[in-house]
Amino acid sequence: MSQIEQLSSINGKPMVLHEGYIYTVERATTTKLIFRCKNRDCKARCHTNLSMNAFLSLPTSHCHAPQPDCVPAIK
Ligand SMILES: [Zn+2]
């Protein structure tokens, strides 16, 4: 299973990092969190459990390359 790294964002919304892609919460349900790619032009989505440590649904494909350079600035 791929590793999910949790990030804390400036505005208090949970974010996760996976394989160089950053996801922000789109929606939360009682059983899972639905994340979307930080890139607004990208349609990639993934679902995690409420602890944000396991994927319930793996990320769909991105229309762009990962941007690991952006990550240290957010941490
Ligand atoms: Zn993307």
Q: How would you sum up the global shape?
A: globular
Query: How far do the termini sit from each other?
Result: 23 Å
Secondary-structure-based class equals mainly beta
What's the helix-strand series? Answer: EEEEEEH
Overall pLDDT level? 88
Helix segment tally: 1
Helix content: under 10%
Q: What ligands can be seen in this structure?
A: zinc ion
Compute the CA-based radius of gyration. Answer: 11 Å
Describe the protein's topology.
Blueprint: E1 5-8, E2 14-18, E3 21-28, E4 33-37, E5 45-48, E6 55-57, H1 71-74
This protein binds zinc ion.
Residues 21, 37, 39, 42, 44, 62, 64 line the site of zinc ion (ZN).
Can you walk through the features of this model?
- With 75 residues, this protein is mainly beta.
- The protein has one domain.
- It is 5% helix and 39% strand.
- It contains one helix and six strands, in the order E-E-E-E-E-E-H.
- A six-stranded antiparallel β-sheet has the order 1-2-3-4-5-6, with no helix packed on it.
- It is globular, with a radius of gyration of 11 Å.
- It starts with a strand and ends with a helix.
- The mean pLDDT is 88.
- Zinc ion (ZN) binds next to loops.
- This is FLYWCH-type domain-containing protein.
- Pfam families: FLYWCH (PF04500).
- InterPro entries: Znf_FLYWCH (IPR007588).
- GO terms for molecular function: zinc ion binding.
- It comes from Rotaria socialis.
